[in-house]
TrEMBL record:
NCBIfam families documented for this protein: Rieske_proteo
Annotated EC: 7.1.1.8
Subcellular location, record wording: Membrane; Mitochondrion inner membrane
Domain Rieske: start-end pairs: 164-224
Cofactor-binding details, from the entry: Binds 1 [2Fe-2S] cluster per subunit.
Name of the protein described by the UniProt record: Cytochrome b-c1 complex subunit Rieske, mitochondrial
Catalytic activity: a quinol + 2 Fe(III)-[cytochrome c](out) = a quinone + 2 Fe(II)-[cytochrome c](out) + 2 H(+)(out)
Length: 224
């Protein structure tokens, strides 16, 4: 049993010898690595505990005169857009009005001049105005007296003769029957004025409806 102890002791001793040798190798290895250049090496814990400072950009160059320039540029752009918009709107309105205005042929028919001295007393003349017939009657003094003698309250469409003429001797009317738009015949009918043969409407010497289906007197246009 003593031998066994010795052997065990020797084994432990040899193991104890081996450990320092391994440690020496490790130490040698560390010493060998320490020969490299570590001047650029910085520990990750080097900045621990230090207070960091934040650098704030300098915005002073954006103040002062530059701000005024930016506002002036903005005003200029707004004014330019306003002028362009107004010009566009004006052009659009002008084009619309030109398209809506009457053509040359329509304007030519809008005004008709008639030489009244060429119309003898007691006669009718028919002219065309805006595609419609116009009756012009040079009335005699007897016809004027007859027109004024009619009682207005007895008329279907009450109207005095003086309200239908500017000068008593000249009666100017649209030659369209107020019933269905037919053209009456002059110097005919029961009242010596105009007669519509389509449905039997009779008008007197002042163009007022006296008998038949027509509801209104013959229309008086604007004239000079």
């Amino acid at each position: 049993m003593n031998c066994l102890r010795v052997a065990a002791s020797r084994a432990i001793a040899s193991a104890a010898v081996v450990r320092p040798a391994a440690a020496s190798a490790a130490a040698l290895s560390v010493r060998n690595h320490s020969t490299f250049d570590t001047s650029d090496y910085q520990s990750p814990f080097a900045s621990a505990g230090k207070k960091e400072t934040t650098r704030i950009p300098d915005f002073s160059k954006y103040k002062g005169g530059n701000a005024g320039t930016n506002k002036l540029f903005g005003y200029f752009m707004v004014g330019t857009m306003g002028v362009l918009s107004a010009a566009g709107a004006k052009a659009t309105i002008q084009d619309f009005l030109v398209n809506m205005s009457a053509s040359a042929d329509v304007l030519a028919m809008a005004k008709v001049e008639v030489d009244l001295s060429a119309i003898p007393e007691g006669k009718n003349v028919i002219i065309k105005w805006r595609g419609k017939p116009v009756f012009i009657r040079h009335r005699t003094p007897d016809e004027i007296e007859e027109a004024n003698a009619v009682k207005i309250e007895s008329l279907r469409d009450p109207q005095s003769d003086s309200d239908r003429v500017k000068q008593p001797e000249w009666l100017i009317m649209l030659g369209i029957c107020t019933h269905l738009g037919c053209v009456p015949i002059g110097e005919a009918g029961d009242y010596g004025g105009w007669f519509c043969p389509c449905h039997g409407s009779h008008y007197d010497i002042s163009g007022r409806i006296r008998r038949g289906p027509a509801p209104l007197n013959l229309e008086i246009p604007e004239y000079e």
